[in-house]
Amino acid sequence: MFEELRCPNETCYGWVSEVEESSNSKFYGCGSCGNVWRNLDQLSESIEHIITKYAYRQKVYLKSNNVWQGVDIDDEPEDYEELVASEWNNV
């Protein structure tokens, strides 16, 4: 079962959700920025890319059994959204 996690798109601190298109088709999308990942491999690649570019981003993700999960919101850095919003200065 997929649990929501923070969006790995640059400048976005929204949430990624699993979206079912039909009984055997799903994708992953962020309701804030509209970015879409067709599968978990694409989403994982985006997470790995963003944590390489911005090390503080890794504090909201955990990798377990080779699958990325989000940390509990209470365990996120208090200034996480501020840090992500500051990425606009690097775009």
Task: Give structural notes.
With 91 residues, this protein is an alpha+beta fold. It contains two helices and six strands, in the order ββββαββα. The chain has helices at residues 40-53, 80-85, and strands at residues 5-6, 15-22, 25-30, 36-37, 61-64, 67-70. The strands form two sheets. A four-stranded antiparallel beta sheet has the order 1-2-3-4.
Core attributes:
single chain; 91 residues; alpha+beta; four-stranded antiparallel beta sheet; two-stranded antiparallel sheet; globular
The total beta strand count reads 6
Oligomerization state of this entry?
A: single chain
Across the major sheet, the strand order is: 1-2-3-4
Q: Describe the sheet with the most strands.
A: 4 strands, antiparallel
First-last Cα distance? 34 Å
Mean pLDDT rating: 93
Number of helices: 2
- Decide which structural class fits the backbone: alpha+beta
Overall 3D shape: globular
Name the beta content range. 25-35%
Low-confidence segments: none
Q: Please bin the fraction of helical residues.
A: 10-25%
Q: Which sequence of SSEs, written as H and E, runs from N to C?
A: EEEEHEEH
Q: What is the gyration radius calculated from CA atoms? A: 13 Å
